[in-house]
Amino acid sequence: MIERRAPAKLNLGLEILRRRADGYHEIETIFLPLGLADRLEFRRAPADSGIRLRVAGGALPEGRENLVFRAAERACAELGVAADLEIALEKSVPIAAGLGGGSSDAAATLLALEALFEKPMLTSTRQRIALELGADVPFFLDPRPALGRGVGERLEALSGVPEMFWVLVAFPFPISTAEAYQEAGLELTLPRGPTSIGALLGPSGLLVSPRNDLEASAVRRHPEIRAARRALESVGALATGMTGSGPTVFGRFANEQAARQAAERVEVPAGARTIATSSPGSASAESMGESDWGVAKR
Question: If you average pLDDT over residues 93-113, what whole number do you get?
Answer without folding.
Answer: 96
